[in-house]
Amino acid sequence: MPTHTGRLVFLLAFAAVAAISLPSPIAAAVDKGGVQLSDKTLYQILYVEPNHYLQSLGNISDIPGSLSRTFLSPAHRRAAGRLRRWMASAGMRTWADQMANVHGIVKAADPEAPTIILGSHYDTVVDGGKFDGALGIIVAISAVKAVLLEAALAKGLVSDAELEQAVDLLHNPRAGIDGGLDLAELLYDQQTAQLISTPVQVVAFSDEEGVRFHSTYLGSRVLTGTLLDHGILTNIDHEGVSVLEALEQAGFDPSPASLRKMAIPHNRIKAYLEVHIEQGPVLQAVGRRLGTVAAIAGQSRLQAEIIGEQGHAGTVPMRVRRDPLAASAEVIGQLERICNGGRHGGDLLSPDLGEDHSLVCTVGSMSIWPNAGNVIPGAANFTLDIRSRWDHNRKQVIQQLRSAMEAVCARRELQCRLYVKNEAAAVESSPELVEGLLAATEEAKGLVDRLLAQARLNAPPPPVAASSPAAATCQAPADGSMQGCADAASDAAIEATSIETADEAAYGSTTGGTAAGGGTGGGAAVLDAAGAATNGSNPLELVSGAGHDAMVFAEVTKMGMLFVRCRDGISHSPLEHVHPDDVAAAAATLYRYLRKQLLMSEN
Predict the structure, then answer these.
(1) Among residues 174, 76, 66, which one has the least CA distance to residue 123?
(2) Tens digits of per-residue pLDDT, 250-303?
(3) Parallel/antiparallel/unpaired status of strands 379-388 and 298-307
(4) Highest mean pLDDT (candidates 18-22, 107-111, 371-375)
(5) How confident is the model at residue 184 (pLDDT cuts 50, 70, 90)?
(6) Which of 24, 189, 217 lies closest to 121, judged by CA?
(7) Rounded to whole angstroms, how far apart are CA atoms 535 and 546?
């Protein structure tokens, strides 16, 4: 297992202490002539803090040595408290609602103005990674904090000298950096409402993964008012406890009246934005840190049942067997051909689907009866997951699969059944938000370059190699500090002798080979798919094959997403990793986007 966290902690700690000796700030402004935060302050807020917060949050787990934080678990509760503390230090009013969502809001001068909502989830899969979900929350907190401080500076509520002094005091060796720069020590609560023209709200959703109750999007559905329509409060966990009972045991009020009250009126939502790791290899393949999301693929989850005749493996002749497992293999092979997978030579089986590079088809689970080595199976059941940006293509695959399955079963004299268990339509991102995020990505490049230059300036020399492997994850102390985590696993990227070498080690060449393709099996294939999936002309626009809370909000408001490169496309794994530079790039881009939306009265 790679060893990266110790080196990252060392880098961040060194950068924090060294921040007091940064050279004179360069103009951090993108808009010339305005009052702007210094590079020293921006480096603290957009680089040091988000990277430290991600490591700190990633150490809150229910399982020592592994990151697992499921809905309403003890670690889930501790993470909620940590997030509220960080939101408050960013100048937000915070609370947890009756579904354990954590909110931070900054009101605007106009109390009736619709709100921009930023968010992602803070639950994890079992043995997951530190960046899935958490990245979107932490980056949002940092971006909002930067916008508020810039507005306060422009209004004369705080001076640049005060901010730099606060940064210097923050990095006193006797002080911890877990809380970051605290706006409560710089501004009165009443002042923050006068700083922006559009309200902004950060939401850490309590349950997106659905690990405990198989109930995805609990947190976002309750805020859009659609939770009760899905009837999932009666879902039970492995101990027989229902969602309803678990909420009551945790002290929440899950009554229908309470849940309806939590819904945000749709006309009070201006837009929803989510920053998320890509969970795929495209950005790495094309050499980009960030990419906007043009759409989220629709999904169909199906169950196939094939019933045959159970028999003795040694006595039933092959020509008379009615083997459901052999039929399943044939059907699964047909599905792969329909979806143009498997690297088969010759013409595509479905040429009309050949241009849809967002189309993916997966058989992920199978059960066989009686599942004995010397018995011809009597029944086989398997799941199918079909996704595409284009709903008509997804439905075409299901139709072709059904026909293929019926033909196989008729020839083999088997009983077959194929039925849909769950379906979600594809959603398109708002063109307005896509364009805004693309523009912010370009506008933030100068700021990102300066942040990364500061990181390189303050990077410590490489540490002496450890004599023994370190653990991949460490438990966070009660105070949230990073003490005790110095021996946690570190990333090969950060173990390089410089950050430039680190980038190469972490992400490799973008022109081909294993580095470009990562764990997906072939750089050239990934690059081809990347160009097609992004429509070739603009590799910054992606299609998300994974579901997100953004899908839920797309039902009620304009939606946009910003993807962040992750190493080898790996997610839902302890190996999941986003380079600290890319975290900072995401924070800087969201900051550039928000300052236009929140500080300009015409918006």
Answers:
(1) 76
(2) 999 999 999 999 999 999 999 999 999 999 999 999 999 999 999 999 999 999
(3) antiparallel
(4) 371-375
(5) confident
(6) 217
(7) 19
Q: Tokens for 527?
A: 């690059």
pLDDT at residue 462 in the model: 67
For the segment 567-576, the average pLDDT, to the nearest whole number, is: 96
Structure confidence at residue 459 (pLDDT): 79
Q: Which of 281, 278, 277 is nearest to 529 (CA)?
A: 281
Give Cβ neighbours of residue 181 (< 8 Å, ≥ 6 apart).
41, 44, 45, 49, 89, 145, 149, 163, 166, 167, 170
What are the percentages of helix, strand and coil residues in the chain, rounded to 5?
A: 40, 15, 40
**Phi and psi for 100 in degrees, rounded to 5?**
70, 15
Select the more confidently predicted residue: 217 or 422. Answer: 217
Structure confidence at residue 600 (pLDDT): 56
Query: Using omega within 30 degrees of 0 as the cis cutoff, is the peptide bond preceding 580 cis?
Result: no
* Range list of H helices, 90-200: 134-154, 160-170, 189-192
Using alpha carbons only, give the angle 452, 456, 462 rounded to the nearest 5 degrees. 140
Note the residue count of the chain: 603
* pLDDT at residue 505 greater than cutoff 60: no
- Under DSSP, is residue 261 helix (H, G, I), strand (E, B) or coil? helix
Query: CA quadruple 307, 311, 313, 316: dihedral positive or negative?
Result: negative
Beta-bridged to residue 301, according to DSSP, are 385, 422
Nearest to 218 by CA among 54, 98, 210: 210
Joined together, the tokens standing for residue 192 give: 């923050």
State yes or no: pLDDT of 520 exceeds 60: no
Which pTM was predicted?
0.81
The pLDDT value recorded for residue 507 is 53
Which helix (DSSP H) or strand (DSSP E) does residue 296 occupy?
strand 290-296
| C-alpha separations of 31 from 34, 42, 398, 443, 587 in Å | 6, 15, 52, 10, 18
Q: What is the 3-state secondary structure (H, E, C) of 15-49?
A: HHHHHHHCCCCCCCCCCCCCCCCCHHHHHHHHHHH
